[in-house]
Amino acid sequence: KLPSLEYVHVYQELHENLKILQSQFQMNFQRVDSLITSENLVSMQINAETLQRITDNLSKLNELTELERWKRQDLQDLSETVQNRIHQLQNPTNCENVPKLKCILTPGCGFGCVVNDMAACLIVTLSTNYTMIIDHNIWDYSVQGWEKLFLPISDTCSTKMYTHNNILMDLVNIAVKLKRNPPEYVLGLPEDIAHRLVNLHRRPVAWWVGQLVKYLMRPKSSTLSAIEQYKQKINFQHPIVGIHVRRTDKIKEADYHDIEEYMIHVDSFYKSLEQKQKIKTKRIFLATDDPAVLA
User: Fold this and answer.
1) Which range is least confidently modeled, 72-76, 187-191, 204-208?
2) In whole angstroms, what is the distance from residue 279 CA to residue 271 CA?
3) Is the peptide bond before 239 cis (omega within 30 degrees of 0)?
4) Which pLDDT does position 182 carry in this prediction?
5) Phi-psi region of 90 (alpha: psi -120 to 50; beta: other; left: phi over 0)
6) Is 83 helix (H, G, I), strand (E, B) or coil?
7) Of 48, 175, 156, nearest in space to 103 by CA
8) pLDDT of the residue at 267
């Protein structure tokens, strides 16, 4: 028997609060480590281990009630539903007769910036039942365009079918729409999907945007092959934790976080995993634009 929705909500809130408390405790512990007495140090270490055990026990409780298995299956089903809906919208039988939105990729925009813009376009199309098209050749990362690495966002529509009579708006005007903040434009999240999602995921907005990016970034077979070859080259193995440490120009836009802060979460992951299996090697896949991170 599956737990009630009230149980799910209480569990999600408890788990989230424990993770926040654990992270804050560990960060504060590192900051004052050199200033506290040996007696207090032992006490803080015991508290940290207690928090870890509580978190692990909560996860075990999750497994005993089959809540996690149920959530994973339902989220998988929900993901398939979302992907199918996007695919149907993006592949009309007669593209000439459907309204379309032309999403213009901004020249000079970084990779993340481009994906963000495309996701914003997709949000609008899902909210208005328009089909999204792009000029995939205008992309700074490859002279062969977006479709060099990823599958076409539509198999039946292209920019050649673009006319001003059936266009909704270009990307420049999308930002204006989003700033007005009507719910249907902010996320493009269908009501039936939203109702199920809030009971399954602690971060429903992140999951939803992830589904949009999942559709946009479906890799071509050649891309998958290149990834597999690279994994073999570097002897990529599990278990492994991937972390992305962004520096350079991003420091001007976001707060600086030392590498030690990232390692708090890596350490927490492996401690939890050790409760389930033996770990011979703790691996990290580090993606960064700053070699000084390794210094």
Assistant:
1) 187-191
2) 10
3) yes
4) 42
5) alpha
6) helix
7) 175
8) 86
DSSP code of 201?
A: -
Q: Per the structure block, which two tokens stand in for 163?
A: 């006319």
C-beta pairs of 197-205 under 8 Å, 24+ apart in sequence: 197/78, 199/5, 199/8, 199/9, 200/8, 200/71, 200/74, 200/75, 200/78, 201/71, 201/75, 202/12, 202/15, 202/16
136 Cα distance to chain centroid: 23
**Would you tell me how many other CB atoms lie within 10 Å of the CB of residue 220?**
14
Query: What pTM value is reported for the model?
Result: 0.74
Alpha-carbon distance values, 270 to 15, 56, 181, 208, 279 (Å): 17, 11, 40, 27, 8
Measuring CA to CA, which residue among 168, 160, 109, 114 is closest to residue 135?
Answer: 160
Both tokens of 266, joined, read 């890596």
Structure tokens at 57: 């026990």
Phi-psi region of 280 (alpha: psi -120 to 50; beta: other; left: phi over 0): alpha
Q: Cβ contacts of residue 259 below 8 Å, gap of 6+?
A: 245, 293
Using one digit for the tens of pLDDT, what is the confidence trace for 19-38?
Answer: 777 676 666 666 555 555 56
**Mean pLDDT of all residues belonging to the chain:** 79
Q: Tell me the per-residue pLDDT of 209-261, one tens digit each, with 9 for 90 and over.
A: 999 999 999 999 999 999 999 999 999 999 999 999 988 877 787 888 888 88
Q: How far apart are CA 273 and CA 276, in angstroms?
A: 5
- Total residue length of the chain: 295
